[in-house]
Give the backbone structure.
Amino acid sequence: MGGNYSAMDPMQVPVPDLRKLFERDGYLKPYERELRRRYACFKDIWDKIQGWDGGVESFSTAYNYYGPQFGFDGSVVWREWAPGAHSIHLQGDFNGWNPKSHPFKKLEYGKWELYIPADKDGSHPLKHQSRVQIIVNDHLYRVSPWASYVKPYEGFTYQHFIYRPDEPYKFKHPKVSRPASLRIYECHVGIATNEGRVGTYLEFKDNVLPRIKGLGYNAIQLMAIMEHAYYASFGYQVTNFFAASSRYGTPCELKKLIDRAHELGIYVLLDVVHSHASKNTLDGLNEFDGTNAGFFHDGPRGTHALWDSRLFNYSETEVLRFLLSNLRWYQEEYKFDGFRFDGVTSMLYHSRGIGEGFSGHYDEYFGLNVDTEALVYLMLANELVHSIDKRAITIAEDVSGMPASGRPVNEGGTGFDYRLGMAIPDMWIKLLKEEKDENWKMGHIVHTLTNRRWLEGTVAYCESHDQALVGDKTIAFWLMDAAMYTHMSTLSEPNAVVERGLALHCMIRLITNALGGEAYLNFMGNEFGHPEWLDFPREGNNSSYHYARRQWHLVDDSLLKYRFLNQFDVDMNALEEKYGWLRSNPAYVSCKHDGDKLIAFERAGLLFVFNFHPSQSFTDYRVGVNVPGKYQAVLCTDSKKYGGFGRVEPDTEVHHTQNMPWSDRNDSLQIYIPCRSAIVYARSE
């Protein structure tokens, strides 16, 4: 199935809403034939799946066919897909680890099946928490690709344990509504404690979820949930796709975490990795059937040169069945609301994005470098996820800016709801690393924050986990560095470095949130200016957990200035919830003055004014607005409650428009805007 796309005439495959793409982006019109071809490839596979017995639902619930299936009569039927295998056996606690007593029978299409009768007492022979192992070709020891629970056994290698508790956890709370304004708290369960150890699902449920709720975020993005044998891979070298990581606890405990999030009204996204897989053989997918192919491409196409991992063969029917079922598994078994797809750029191009600058010329997106098979898989995945749950949100981690990736499949798009605005954090880090404040270009900042495709949702963020990894620093540490060790106490003498850091940290978050997209993301701890960097225990740091944790005690200490940054996040999220700029049309920027270092824009009925000048404050600075009336300050980064100087406090600054057009706006007002501060004004009747 798939792969043989050249025989179809794409112009004969209707895409009724393709015109919507052209209305939004006229540059796509010359590529109509290629857009139709892509849709034709998708439609061909989708229709074939629908025509098979059980249709898409059966195809995407393969976890009910493969792996161990427990019958009502106490028997177990175990199936695997291993087209390159010559023989398969099962050994485990249930048969005294006899490697020959339970051979699989070979079926057609590379499938294998084993029937195990019930025990004499009528119970299933595979007991809860018992260990099992597959033997391929009499000498290759493997973990089933469909294993739902694995954990280390006698060393670092993970092995398959049956997980069938007598009282499985039952969800008590329904999924929450899809947020109109998506405010994402990106988090990692393992590093979510103060202590230098691996945190647990239950600790996260009890200790961190209330913090997230209190901050005003309405969604979490859980990282490193799909099992990965190497902790320091940050979850991106997946070994067991259907197994939630056992290092944090049991599947039931993860369900409790998600259920509690839903009780708090928090939408839950899974950071899903379908772009590649770990090269591990003993506890991963690699060479499962004894060959270099199977789930992956053979030869150079099957290996990622930089990530040292395996690349899926998306033209293979059983690979599509495996990956699509994997998405459904997390939606239905664990009640995840949506997905953030990792490594989409690597999937979209045969070059894997390695060494590509992506100038934005449309030929880059519609040439021979595009991997049609992977692109079609993403279309299938998005169509499936949204057909299962209309509330579902999908986000693409794509730095290339593939056109129409954020439009529905039936419009000829890839089907994602959002893409990550990955150029934004890169800009901030580059500015902080390489340029003095007085050299910042306001036009460059505005262009980077607004350079996105019309009506294709963008998730804006200042820093994610990538910007905090070892070898780099958090924004707070770039701003304040060593002063964070000496002058973050409210009792210490004033310090210019810390004063600058607090001010810019608030300003950077606010302008990114308000101008940069239709959703906002923050990585755990960065809301209060988490210091230093993030580093997992590994050989290079003597297996230290010192940086693989979150120092919550810093923000909880009332004598430290971290609480100022944290409070700003609370108030910024509350203001967004009230006025909803993320769910509004993009902002209208009326001022970007390089000399004055000033940016002004309107969005959702609010006026945002930013003065990035390090020393120049302005009195009676004229700013254009489109709606006349009385404007009152509702948020100011210079407020004393955020560690500022209090030169402007919310609810004290009121200005009236003056019936004077300005900066192509119908009216204007004059304001006082201190140096290194931002003010948000709302109309007040």
In short: The radius of gyration is 27 Å. Confidence is low (pLDDT under 50) at residues 2-7. The chain has 16 helices and 29 strands.
